[in-house]
């Protein structure tokens, strides 16, 4: 991967990791009932799921080889989730969003952070 491609991929990955950290911060201390009762937290989480999805899509668009080399990252699923919450408006199933917050998003964050660490190590940072 060329230096500009690596820089661009790193930027997309960083955006996704930052969005994941925000979701964790917004939902810290909440249980599902608390999440379902707080429209502002729901909106904040949904916005950050959109950021994650756009970042995943941008990795695939701008460096498809990188995405292909990391099939353990569910690039298409992250983008599909973004589309569901972005276009679902008032029909978003918030219980599914909560499940993703609890199970999928933290795993994705760990995976993406490892990729960022690997990119940094490969560049000697």
- Give the termini distance in whole angstroms: 16 Å
Sheet with the most strands?
none
Based on CA atoms alone, the radius of gyration comes out at 15 Å
Helix content: over 70%
Mean pLDDT: 94
How big a fraction of the residues is strand? under 5%
β-strand number: 0
- Total helices: the number is 6
Class from secondary-structure proportions: mainly alpha
Order of helices and strands: HHHHHH
Oligomer kind: single chain
Mass-distribution shape: elongated
Poorly predicted runs are none
Topology (SSEs and partners):
Elements: H1 3-27, H2 32-36, H3 39-62, H4 64-69, H5 75-87, H6 94-122
Give a verbal description of the structure:
This protein has 125 residues and is mainly α. It is built from six helices and no strands. The protein has helices at residues 3-27, 32-36, 39-62, 64-69, 75-87, 94-122. α3 packs across α5 (75-87). The longest helix is centred in the last third of the chain and has 29 residues, at 94-122. It is elongated, with a radius of gyration of 15 Å. The two termini are 16 Å apart. The model has no long low-confidence stretch (mean pLDDT 94).
């Amino acid at each position: 991967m060329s230096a500009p491609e690596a820089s661009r991929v790193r930027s997309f990955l960083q955006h996704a990791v930052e969005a994941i950290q925000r979701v964790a911060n917004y939902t810290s201390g909440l249980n599902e009932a608390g999440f379902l009762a707080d429209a502002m937290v729901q909106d904040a989480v949904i916005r950050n799921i959109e950021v994650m999805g756009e970042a995943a899509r941008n990795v695939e668009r701008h460096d498809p080889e990188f995405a292909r080399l990391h099939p353990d990252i569910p690039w298409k699923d992250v983008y599909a989730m973004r589309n569901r919450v972005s276009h679902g408006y008032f029909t978003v199933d918030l219980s599914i969003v909560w499940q993703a917050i609890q199970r999928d998003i933290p795993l994705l964050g760990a995976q993406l952070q490892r990729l960022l660490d690997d990119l940094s190590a490969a560049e000697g940072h």
